């Protein structure tokens, strides 16, 4: 019998399983080969991007905001580097046991932090703390907690604090201007953030800088017209006056007559822009540019300017104010005394309401309106300050005799302290109006003549009488300098009329009279310490601020005047009230 081969002896079922196994292994080998080819050639780009997404990051490069300085380079606003801490919630959620450590380092409630992280798992970026000191941020980063990162930012700092608070305004937490000059020149000061691509390790440390996507562009520096020395001086004197007079508020504006530059602008109550917690809307508005008020007798020089410009009056003109009162319609306007027949300089020096009524009623309303409008009343200045008010100058077509007289006494129209100071600066420039500027100018700008030079020289000479022993503004005198100005006291408007015990005390003027260099306005809102007249409350502030500023600017004294100690005391004005206060 013939022997059988091994193949014949192998069961058919075994051979079938062997073939199946070889087929499966072959298919697996082919699948692996195809997958390798697919990964290397077909899906390479996608996989590379996925890998980069886990280790590659696009980081912003912070650009610091431009520095603001005064006209001599003293820093008023600077940006200091700080760090902010942020997390990738999905990464931090994988290490929830680290949340208590992180909360303790950030001084946050651990439960609140856990809630914030778990409720934002769909986000890749979540701020936990802003504007921390770099050393503190480095300590938090050194904890090595997954998903915790830091980024460089800048925080605004104001070296002069509340001295320049109202003028500069402030920025928000993202370093964007929100108020004041920070807002007005935000387009100039703001930098442009840069970006770069980096590779980071699992702890967020940068392993490699891959590429620069966009370079950072720092903000541009801004040089203001402000003289910080005069700003400090005005701030100090105004704050003392508000305290001593127990006043509600106040403002001081100082302008350079030759250039239109704002050398100082301060308000009370003030605020510190470095302390964001105490910034309130009622505190941070710049009253000198945004708040309007009825100027009282401080408007009278500009009605006189209209009279001089008309040719009907000059410095020799006599106004008969007898018998000391003047009736217009049903309204009687009174003077404190019967001054009799007086010249226009005396009308201003005594702040005669009757004399002003006579002058105003002899002028066409359109001529008065045109003069006031050319001096800037009823319109915003060229300063560009955010929120600046245009004041109120009614159309002359609506004027009636009683309204004309009322306006000549400073009621029925409204101004801002900046507007009023600009008008006095125009008179001090002998009729040349120059644009108001918060930026330092390299040369005096070309102005536009709005009044005849002769008219303004006559008016400035008349206003000097106000600051003599016979005038209402004798306390505005500055030893060694001649001063021209005008007092103003106005009842404050209330619902249904005017208050009988709330006042605005004002003094505006220029110095030195011979060749005016500075124009200034002082406004004291609701003095409540027994005195309320502009000559009593605002004039002394003008004397100290402008006198100090002239000395700081090394302006040579002009013809000497008597010192305050040599001036006669004169009768106390007390609380004398007339139909329209001086």
Describe the model.
By secondary structure, the chain is an alpha+beta fold. The chain has two domains: 58-223, Penicillin-binding protein 2a (Domain 2), CATH 3.90.1310; 228-271 and 283-562, 3-Layer(aba) Sandwich (Beta-lactamase), CATH 3.40.710.10. It is built from 22 helices and 19 strands. The strands form six sheets. Strands 2, 3, 4, 5 and 8 form a five-stranded mixed sheet that branches. A five-stranded antiparallel sheet has the order 10-9-19-18-17, with helices on both faces. Helix 11 packs antiparallel against helix 22 (539-552). The radius of gyration is 38 Å and the shape is elongated. 43% of the residues are buried.
What's the pLDDT, averaged over the residues?
A: 86
The CATH topology of the largest domain comes to Beta-lactamase
CATH class membership of the largest domain: Alpha Beta
Class from secondary-structure proportions: alpha+beta
Strand content of the residues, in percent?
15-25%
Number of domains: 2
> How does CATH name the architecture of the largest domain?
3-Layer(aba) Sandwich
Tell me the major beta sheet. Answer: 5 strands, mixed
- Tell me the distance between the termini: 150 Å
Shape annotation:
elongated
Total count of strands: 19
In terms of per-residue confidence, which ranges show pLDDT below 50 for 5 or more consecutive residues? 563-582
Give the helix level as a range of percent: 25-40%
Query: DSSP helix count?
Result: 22
Radius of gyration: 38 Å
- According to CATH, the homologous superfamily of the largest domain is DD-peptidase/beta-lactamase superfamily
């Amino acid at each position: 019998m013939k022997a059988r081969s091994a193949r014949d002896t192998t069961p058919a079922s075994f051979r079938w399983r062997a073939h199946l196994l070889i087929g499966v292994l072959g298919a697996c080998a082919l699948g692996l080969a195809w997958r390798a080819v697919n990964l290397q050639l077909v899906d390479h780009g996608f996989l590379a991007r996925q890998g980069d997404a886990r280790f590659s990051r696009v980081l912003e490069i912070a650009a610091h905001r431009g520095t603001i300085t005064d006209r001599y380079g003293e820093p008023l606003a600077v940006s200091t580097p700080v760090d902010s801490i942020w997390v990738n919630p999905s990464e931090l959620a994988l290490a929830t046991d680290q949340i208590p450590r992180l909360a303790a380092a950030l001084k946050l409630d651990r439960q609140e932090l856990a809630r914030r992280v778990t409720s934002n798992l769909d986000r890749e970026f979540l701020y936990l703390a802003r504007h921390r000191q770099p050393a503190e941020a480095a300590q938090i980063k050194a904890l090595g907690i997954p998903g915790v990162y830091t980024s460089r930012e800048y925080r605004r700092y104001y070296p002069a604090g509340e001295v320049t608070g109202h003028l500069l305004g402030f920025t928000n937490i993202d370093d964007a201007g929100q108020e004041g000059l920070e807002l007005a020149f935000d387009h100039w000061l703001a930098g442009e953030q840069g970006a770069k691509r980096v590779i980071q390790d699992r702890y967020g440390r940068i392993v490699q800088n891959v590429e620069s996507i966009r370079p950072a562009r720092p903000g541009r520096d801004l040089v203001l017209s402000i003289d910080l020395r005069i700003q400090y001086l005005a701030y100090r004197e105004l704050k003392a006056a508000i305290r001593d007079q127990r006043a509600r508020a106040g403002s001081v504006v100082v302008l350079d007559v030759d250039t239109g530059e704002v050398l100082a602008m301060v308000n009370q109550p003030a605020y510190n822009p470095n302390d964001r917690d105490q910034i309130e809307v009622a505190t941070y508005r710049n009253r000198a540019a945004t708040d309007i008020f009825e100027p009282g007798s401080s408007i009278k020089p500009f009605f006189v300017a209209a009279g001089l410009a008309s040719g009907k009056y000059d410095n020799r003109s006599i106004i008969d104010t007898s018998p000391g009162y003047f009736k217009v319609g049903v309204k009687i306007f009174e003077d404190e005394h019967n001054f009799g027949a007086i010249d226009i300089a005396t009308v201003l020096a005594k702040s005669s309401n009757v004399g002003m009524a006579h002058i105003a009623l002899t002028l066409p309303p359109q001529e008065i309106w045109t003069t006031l409008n050319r001096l800037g009343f009823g319109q915003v200045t060229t300063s560009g300050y955010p929120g600046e008010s245009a004041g109120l100058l009614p159309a002359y077509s609506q004027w009636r005799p009683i309204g004309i007289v009322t306006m000549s006494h400073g009621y029925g129209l409204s101004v801002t302290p900046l507007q009023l100071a600009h008008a006095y600066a125009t008179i001090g420039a002998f009729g040349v109006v120059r644009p108001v500027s918060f930026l330092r100018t390299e040369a005096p700008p070309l102005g536009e003549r709005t009044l005849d030079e002769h008219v303004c020289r006559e008016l400035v000479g008349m206003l000097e009488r106000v600051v003599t022993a016979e005038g209402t503004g004798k306390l505005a005198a500055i030893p060694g300098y001649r001063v021209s100005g005008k007092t103003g006291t106005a009842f404050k408007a209330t619902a249904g009329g005017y208050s009988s015990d709330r006042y605005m005390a004002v003094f505006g003027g220029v110095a030195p009279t011979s060749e005016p260099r500075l124009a200034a306005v002082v406004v004291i809102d609701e003095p409540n310490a027994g005195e309320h007249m502009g000559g009593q409350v605002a004039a002394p502030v003008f004397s100290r601020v402008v006198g100090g500023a002239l000395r700081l600017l090394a302006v040579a004294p002009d013809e000497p005047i008597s010192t305050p100690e040599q001036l006669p005391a004169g009768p106390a004005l007390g609380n004398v009230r007339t139909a329209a206060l001086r």
